[in-house]
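Sample A.
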Amino acid sequence: MADRHYSTGFDISKPGKWVLVNIILESLRDPIWQVGGGILALATLVLLLALRSPEVGVSVYRKRLGTRFLLGVGLTLFLLLSGGVVLFHRANTPPTRVSETPLSAWTPSLFPKPSPSPTPSPLPTLTPSTAQVLTAFCDAINRKDANTAWKQLSVTLQQERTGHVIPPGRMTIVHCSVSDISDRSVSGMLLLRTVDLHGSGDGYDRPFLFTLHVEDGAWKIAQIARCLSDGCLDETPLIVP
């Protein structure tokens, strides 16, 4: 028996018909069409019931003519409303571009291979290391050994802190503890407790990010930043050991 092929009458391979279906579906979901169509249907029904009511003193023939007239007017208004909504959505539908290349001929394009990022140069092997410098700084703070703590700072930071002008927001470190440090990083996190120029403080330890650089063949503290929930703020000029 020969195979029978049945046609559904709708070729889904044509993108234009999908666009038409989308326009119709958008029109059916349009609140203007839904509300307007409902009002037209309700008004037509009310008028038909009123016309065919026994209280209306017209002949049966005239009632039939009136019924046909109301149905015709209601249907015409409904079609005009539907057509207007469809035309509105069609005008706001972006044009569909159809590729002229068949799908079977498509081959994926190759993206250029990203060039490898340069490998960061290893940290200089110095003694003491970055972690040892930060640890020595912390220990000196807790021992009230200001001289040792000052020696861990860069020359620039030491000179800034020995000037005659004292910034109003200057804070003095009274306690220090190590939070996150490593010999493989130029930065480390310390928890500092500070007081203001009047010796007042809240007694809380807060995270500060210390950054070091090489100076005269040794690691020295070059920057101090206070870390908040949204990032770290440079407060190097305000912190003194």
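Sample B, a different protein:
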Amino acid sequence: MSCPTHREATCGHHGVCMSMYELALHSKRNGDAISITYGSDVNNVDTWDGHKIHGCLCDAGYGGYNCGYKNCIRGDDPGTYDDYSEVQIASDLERELRALPSILALSVYYIYDALPPSDVLDTSGISITVPSMVNSSLCSVDGNQLAIIHYTHTHGDVPALQASNKYLMDGMNSNNELGSGMIHVFADGQAIHGLVSLAGTTETDFCNNRGLCDGDAGVCKCFADWTSSDGARQGGEGYTNDCGYRNDKRFTSFDSIKP
């Protein structure tokens, strides 16, 4: 089976035609690569079609079976209340921190002066708290220093952080080499020192299920009483161009005539 077309172009000029085997190797969840295979075992009768059926791997910003429309903003459905944002915990930031871990990006917590690292992740949309902070460092000899990473604007079940120890140095059990320190990340219900991580269950729905996506323009057309939010779960008014915020003024003005 070949790939579909859009406007007489394979994958609409906005994607690459691949077999199911190839598509599985490009699997992602919330933007992070995940390990999935399909059709790699030629003796597996359940995946006989891995190299026979093809589909489109769409370019960033495009979607649909033929990559024929522009994606709209995804967000949490504000009408659901029994869901939770992702919370992960980092521990064992041991010994001496020469500069910030490149993935964790834990603000200004370091012991020694160092050149500002160039590969620190942008922490916008992430809240980081340190409940046991006793000094200006996230490092500790006994591993009891914890950092709680709360994903306030990234929805769904977020993959565990891939922490880098590139700038971490174990000053007690090694020869003080960078990269000898340790970082451990706890996610999806794993616990450490009485704190429990939390798998995110918020939705990642186009236009927050409060509008329709204009696939030609990639713009949300919100239902009445709904407008753009700040992107957080049950968030306030903002400029993300989604449909996650209820326009209280408009809603209130019609409240008296609604059942």
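Observation for Sample B: The chain has a mean pLDDT of 79.
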